[in-house]
Amino acid sequence: MATSKKQVDNGVNVEALLGARKALTEAPEGAKFQWRATCKWVYGTHSRSSIHGYFGLGEEHKHKTEFTFEADHPEVFASEDKGAAPVEMVLCGLASCLTAGVAAVAQHREIQLRSVSATLEAGMDIQGILGIDSDVRNGFDGIKVTYKIDADATPDEIKAVVAQSQKRSAVYDIIANPTNITVEVS
Amino acid sequence: MRTTTLIIGAGQAGLAMSRCLTDRSIDHVVLERGEVANSWKTERWDSLRLLTPNWQSRLPGFGYEGDDPDGYRTMPETIAFLERYAEVVAAPVRTNTRVKSVRQSDDGYQVVTDQGDWQCQAVVLATGACNIATVPALAQAVPAAINTLTAMQYRNPEQIEKGGVLVVGASATGTQIADEIHRSGRPTTLAVGEHVRAPRVYRGRDIEWWMDAAGVLDDRYDEVDDIARARRVPSLQLAGSVERRTIDLNSLTAIGVKLIGRLAHVSLGDGKAQFSGSLRNQCALADLKMNRLLDRIDEWATENGLDDQVEPSHRFEPTEVEASPPLGLDLNSGEIRTIIWATGFRPDYSWLDVPVLDRKGRIRHDGGVVESPGMYLMGIPFLRRRKSSLIDGAGDDARDLSAHLASYLHRAGRS
Ligand SMILES: Cc1cc2nc3c(=O)[nH]c(=O)nc-3n(C[C@H](O)[C@H](O)[C@H](O)COP(=O)(O)OP(=O)(O)OC[C@H]3O[C@@H](n4cnc5c(N)ncnc54)[C@H](O)[C@@H]3O)c2cc1C
């Protein structure tokens, strides 16, 4: 009922998302997306990745501008620290994906957000990447995300928004579940 | 052979519909590939009891008459109950008659069976929602040395080799089977994906009593927020037992069952199984959902002045998840000897030659009224109400759909 709707504005166009969901249920081919990145080695452990084009809704698209990301390793790795470490960029991806989800789910549930902040911590034993101990994996031994959310909702409603955001998050799924990776040299 | 209406399937759905058609003097026949209550006779494990209490199995013109309304029927009792119902309503059942094809004909439907062909004007599909045990595609990569069986093939722990067991799926079926197998001395690991937690007893009353009284089970398909989603919600983690035990992930952990994330991948060849890192969130979602149900029950209790007749409102301990649940299991190590797929059931419509299936193989229908005129569907989750797939849901759905069917026959001028 449009008349009883609270004035909630988290800046997410839920109507458009629900419209897309309905349209893509009827035409599932359009739901097939491809995301892309390119990466150029600069020097040392420093590299620069760019994001521009992607495919979806049956056609090619371009972001409004090309985005570039510098990545390097910190000085304790004897690097020059010209950008965030790639593992840190993974945390950014997870944080941004979950946070976008929080805003969207809150909008859909008519919960006004006032502030949302997340702190991410991921442990890693670098004996793995250094090849010291083959029983230690290269990646994180776990990721902890802590949200601080100020919103017009009960604590349980806020928890439910955060839980639903995890359930629908692409990056959460990418990290929590295995994905086949093919790396080729052309 | 000819009749006005054919009902396919003699479970509670088909029998309730038969009773409603008889009440309306609509000529009909019930075709059943086995015997009355075939699914309960042939597709359930030995120790299973209904998770719905005795009083709750109400069918049109029939209810519970015994002295243990709060008990839970065993399988023999459930079968006897449905057999008795078929007798009481004098359902015209043709047993051992398997439907091999249903197709449209000039004046209705032609139904081919292994006992001859039928022509009818209307047809009710009451063949059940649980004909096939769903097995995930990754099962193909499971090493050959591991015994695998579905929840539909499972009968009792003695059927299974001694040694470790992995039960995949933690809804009503998976949790009950994990509980029974682990207690039989076979160390059990339970892979947990999406699930719905519910206590057996809340504020001194059966949870089914609350859901019935507060109208939760009567929520209608055309009034819930997202019916597509509601139809996919897994079964409540509930079990029927003499002691009225709650079986949930905490009770399983307490007896030593190991919880692990959703089975995500098995690599072909080396038998390494990988599990999702989402266990904590799956449990958080289920705890929050349970608490929303209890909130609704509490509100209803207050509105209806029940607060001083029942025990006080309270909340259950959150589901306990160990700090770092394992993410991998080597299926070749010998630790796991058997895998049981408790990953859900789905209907079989391979005999249905009418173009009413969507791309996922589900029948397109509006509350059981199938797109093809004169065709009706029963017994699937949330068909018309939350209780539609329960024994107790067959009655209201049969009453509604038989009314629609009668007016269809009337409009078609054929009754
Ligand atoms: C493990 C399990 C436990 C359950 N526990 C409960 C519970 O505690 N309480 C509750 O209320 N509900 C419970 N249910 C849900 C539900 O009540 C049952 O699934 C019930 O069997 C459904 O009844 P039905 O009449 O819709 O279908 P069914 O009982 O499956 O009946 C369908 C009939 O159609 C016949 N049939 C199928 N195909 C053909 C064909 N081609 N030709 C002729 N005949 C055919 C079958 O032989 C069968 O007899 C449970 C379900 C399962 C799987």
Which descriptors apply to this entry?
heterodimer; A: 186 residues; GMP Synthetase, Chain A, domain 3; three-stranded antiparallel beta sheet; two-stranded antiparallel ribbon; 30% helix; B: alpha/beta; FAD/NAD(P)-binding domain; 2 domains; five-stranded parallel beta sheet
Give a brief description.
The complex is a heterodimer of chains A (about 190) and B (about 425). Chain A is α+β, with helices and mostly antiparallel strands and about 190 residues long. Chain A is about 30% helix and about 25% strand.
Account of the protein in words:
- The complex is a heterodimer of chains A (186) and B (415).
- Chain A has 186 residues and is of the alpha+beta class.
- Chain A has two domains: 13-84, GMP Synthetase, Chain A, domain 3 (2-Layer Sandwich), CATH 3.30.300; 85-186, GMP Synthetase, Chain A, domain 3, CATH 3.30.300.20.
- In chain A, 30% of the residues lie in helices and 27% in strands.
- In chain A, the strands form two sheets. Chain A has a three-stranded antiparallel beta sheet, with no helix packed on it. A two-stranded antiparallel sheet of chain A has the order 4-5.
- With 415 residues, chain B is an alpha/beta fold.
- Chain B has helices spanning 12-23, 38-42, 75-88, 172-183, 207-213, 227-230, 249-255, 279-303, 394-411, and strands spanning 5-8, 28-31, 93-94, 99-105, 108-113, 116-120, 122-125, 132-133, 147-150, 164-168, 188-192, 196-197, 201-202, 205-206, 236-237, 258-261, 263-266, 272-275, 328-330, 336-341, 345-346, 365-366, 369-370, 375-377.
- In chain B, the strands form eight sheets. Chain B has a five-stranded parallel beta sheet with strand order 3-2-1-7-24, with helices on one face. In chain B, strands 9-20-10-11-16 form a five-stranded parallel beta sheet, with helices on one face. A three-stranded antiparallel beta sheet of chain B has the order 4-5-6, with no helix packed on it.
- The relative contact order of chain B is 0.18.
- The interface between A and B is medium-sized, with 16 and 15 residues.
- Bound molecules: flavin-adenine dinucleotide.
- Flavin-adenine dinucleotide (FAD) binds at residues 8-14, 31-34, 38-40, 44, 50-52, 98-99, 126-128, 130, 173, 345, 351, 379, 389-392 of chain B.
